[in-house]
Design goal:
Largest sheet: 9 strands, mixed
Order of helices and strands: EHEHEEEEEEHEHHEEHHE
Radius of gyration: 18 Å
Helix content: 10-25%
Structural class: alpha/beta
Distance between the termini: 11 Å
Low-confidence stretches: 1-23
Number of helices: 7
């Protein structure tokens, strides 16, 4: 069962000053990591393919990471390019050599920036180097390789195209909580994009605002409202100002899981970076709730309509 919760852009920026000037107690501070790829051509998953490089992408993720530090959290890992492989994201239940517990599932909050694709109603993300013959992070469905939240991870942001399409929600919850795996934990909030997302340093502020606003509003709300953009992309050459409606949107999305629809919805609307301890981990993945802009029409997907 899904709860349809269209996000509304909030006009409450006056509260941000309070959030910025208020230090977190050590009991509320999170461990925060970022994993970003801007150069694929120097790796072996897309060797020499300079067209795949996106030099501005790590800076977008870093804007969130730095502001999470300014908000009082511990910046525990900034990983850019290098030997970025599936091993950092895959779960030992898939392969005993996988090490997500030392990487993406070790902090409390993390952001991943990488090229994404629809891997059959789940998120696929292109790594920089191959590991065990695999170049793709695959999250969603029981056949994926990425299952997070059973160690420490509570908040996962996917700065990646097609990372949380409207047809993923039922599948993604499988990756947010491992059943019968000896852990009572699970991912609290997952965020991403329905369709193509866009890369430019001019969007760094959106990632910074997500970090700031996620201490005042729910993290899902902070992500969805700050990254939503309408009628700005892929316009026809003869319609640069969208006078004829050819431009498309950027469509951020978020989801949560829980033992009931009301439980998942409450988490979706109200869990912030600084109150996650009060919510605790989701006890079940039986229900999910989502947030996004109904009708948002991105490149590479139909309009958002779960």
């Amino acid at each position: 069962m899904a709860f349809r919760i269209p996000a509304r852009r909030a006009l409450q920026r006056t509260l941000v000053g309070v959030a910025v000037s208020t230090a977190l107690s050590s009991a509320l501070a999170l461990k925060v990591d970022m994993y970003a790829i801007g150069n694929w051509s120097g790796g072996d998953c897309a060797p020499g393919d300079v067209d795949s490089n996106r030099g501005s992408w790590p800076g977008m993720a870093n804007a969130w990471y730095e502001w999470m530090g300014l908000m009082g959290h511990a910046k525990t890992g900034k990983f850019v390019d290098g030997n970025m492989t599936v091993r950092r994201f895959c779960d030992p239940s898939v392969n005993p050599a996988c090490a997500d517990f030392s990487w993406v599932d070790w902090p409390d909050a993390a952001i991943i920036a990488a090229h994404g694709w629809d891997d059959g109603d789940r998120w696929g993300a292109l790594m920089r180097n191959a590991w065990n013959g695999e170049c793709g992070l695959r999250m969603g469905k029981a056949s994926g390789n990425t299952f997070v939240g059973d160690s420490n991870l509570k908040f996962l942001h996917a700065s990646s195209c097609l990372s949380l399409n409207d047809n993923y929600f039922g599948n993604m919850r499988v990756a947010m909580k491992k059943v019968n795996a000896g852990s009572s934990k699970g991912l609290h909030v997952m965020t991403g994009f329905h369709g193509v997302m866009w890369i430019t340093s001019s969007f760094n502020g959106d990632y910074a605002d997500t970090a700031i606003d996620g201490h005042v509003h729910g993290v899902a709300h902070a992500w969805v409202t700050n990254h939503y953009k309408t009628n700005q992309f892929s316009c026809e050459a003869w319609d640069p100002f969208n006078w004829f409606g050819t431009c498309q949107d950027q469509c951020p999305t978020a989801m949560t899981i829980g033992p009931s629809g009301g439980n998942a919805l409450n988490r979706l609307l109200n869990e912030r970076y600084n109150n996650s301890a009060a919510f605790g981990p989701p006890s079940s993945r039986n229900f999910y709730a989502w947030m996004g802009y109904l009708g948002c029409d991105p490149v590479a997907q139909d309009a958002f309509n779960p």
